[in-house]
Write a structure and sequence with these properties.
332 residues, alpha+beta, D-Maltodextrin-Binding Protein, domain 2, 3-stranded antiparallel sheet, 11 strands
């Protein structure tokens, strides 16, 4: 009985801290790609110095992190969750009051498309459309066959190989003289863009954002003139068994910040920050290019962002919190 009574004050103190919105210890998934690591490090610094959290980064990846959050309540924050890859499980986690969607990590969503270099569009404005690209097909010479044109698809084994191949078929690019080129790897695909840019040569192919490549090399997404048919994309374009694909632009991928319900409830002020923290793809492309050029990891890039992009992050927090963050930056 005495042990039970002595435990009561601790329970009450814990409940009071919970009710007062104290952040306490919080774990943040540091995903294994650059943009996610940058955002995780930004969240860690802001939560620590702006909201008094004891923040810790833990290694993460989409599927294992999402599953662990649902089943174990850890980590408490996934800063950049490409949620379409496990949409059903995440939605169920929200419905069961295990998770919350805090906001959009990338306000534009993940972006995919067929691209041409900006310098080509400046010279030939019609190349911003698929009709214009087809009109100038002969310019995109296939290095293996000068009588044919080159369209660079996704490396074999990547999910985007299916969608790019189906859209190649739907747009009848073969009939327009284009061969579908397998770049061999992600490095091969980015290298093809870099080589074309260095020589100011025509290039046409698939790519995605946010990436360092699209931050470093200005590209224009080709308009198919079809708009987005999400149903077609889900049911056919992204399906390896699709026999008669139709033309559609790529729908944006949902890229969200996900937290546990327990974290959102115990630290409402910190959670509110996460609902406001968001990046546009153009900005993230530029940050990723800076990281690559400076061989910077997420921690170094975080300091660069918070120091050089104050107009971007200050609207995410109150003036008092912003002052605390600036003071911490001055002490680095």
């Amino acid at each position: 009985m005495n042990k039970m009574l002595s435990a009561i004050p601790l329970v009450l103190m814990s409940s009071m801290a919970f009710a007062n919105g104290e952040c306490g210890k919080v774990t943040i998934a540091d995903m294994n790609w650059s943009s996610a690591s940058l955002i995780a490090n930004i969240d860690k610094f802001i939560l620590e110095h702006g909201f008094g959290c004891e923040a810790e980064l833990v290694p993460g990846d989409t599927m294992p992190t999402g599953t662990s959050m649902i089943e174990k309540g850890e980590p408490e924050i996934a800063p950049e969750m490409w949620s379409n890859s496990m949409r059903e499980a995440l939605d169920k986690g929200v419905a069961e009051k295990r998770l919350r969607f805090a906001g959009q990590s990338l306000s534009d969503g993940g972006e995919e498309g067929f691209w041409v270099p900006e310098y080509l569009v400046k010279q030939y404005p019609e190349m911003a459309t698929i009709e214009g690209v087809v009109k100038h097909a002969a310019m995109f010479e296939n290095p293996e066959d000068p009588d044919r044109s080159a369209f660079y698809g996704c490396p074999a084994g990547w999910n985007c190989q299916i969608s790019a191949g189906n859209l190649y078929k739907a747009l009848n690019l073969d009939g327009a003289g284009f061969d579908l080129i397998d770049p061999g790897s992600g490095a091969g695909l980015s290298g093809a863009i870099a080589k074309a840019y260095e020589r100011q040569e025509p290039w046409f192919g698939y790519y995605w954002a946010p990436t360092a490549v699209l931050g470093k090399y200005k590209m224009v997404k080709v308009d198919f003139g079809s708009g987005v048919d999400k149903e077609e994309y889900i049911n056919c374009t992204s399906n390896a068994d699709c026999l008669e694909p139709k033309v559609t632009m790529y729908p944006p991928s949902m890229v969200q910040t996900v937290t546990t319900e327990a974290f959102a409830a115990k630290a409402p002020a910190a959670y509110e920050y996460l609902t406001k923290r968001s990046f546009k793809n153009d900005q993230m492309n530029g940050l990723l290019a800076w990281m690559e050029e400076n061989q910077a990891d997420g921690d170094v890039a975080m300091e660069h962002f918070l120091t050089e992009y104050k107009d971007s992050w200050k609207p995410w927090v109150s003036a008092d919190v912003a002052a605390k963050i600036e003071q911490a930056l001055n002490n680095l």
